[in-house]
């Protein structure tokens, strides 16, 4: 009798946790979300909304449904990386490193409508290490994402702060090493940017272009046998310079502002 009860208990537990195949976020029981249960799945695709993952429950020959139905393709779950906001480079990296039909584990964090917010883990066998590989943390460590509020969790809850500290540590590593969006510009890059944005140099460039245009116009007029005095051309150029200097004075009153930009 005791053996029979034990077997029955195992069957009930297995059915309630592992062998049910979910095809939508709404099908997942609330207790799974609250208990942060991990679900196995196969990557279907990477979209603008998130990662599409087909749930793959554990197959038990005696307990599970028909094997053919078990392996049949079904609607995928829509997954968002919890607490992470991807950069464009991060999306590209994710598409290269999560290739269908790669196996992943989804640690459930919260649910919003048809979206599951999860920690996405790669099995250790795929990474050749003893530990799971968390995509959320890796993207932050590489500077390919920034931390974002963890949707669906109260900000004061213990789980929220555990995840917040975990993701914060990963982001700090990227910031210290200057990776990705935290990459710092070198001295020459900062100087080139400052020179490019400097009002004085823009003025000189406009004067040069205007002078060249006036010379080209003068040459064309001479070819057409028109008599053009230098005084008229010089007057036009002087008026242009005065106008540009007035504009420069209103935007940058001192050349020291430019020196401050590149310092």
UniProtKB/TrEMBL annotation:
Domain of life: Eukaryota
Cellular component GO terms held in the UniProt record: extracellular space
Protein name (record): TNase-like domain-containing protein
Organism for this UniProt entry: Poecilia latipinna (sailfin molly)
Organism phylogeny: Eukaryota, Metazoa, Chordata, Craniata, Vertebrata
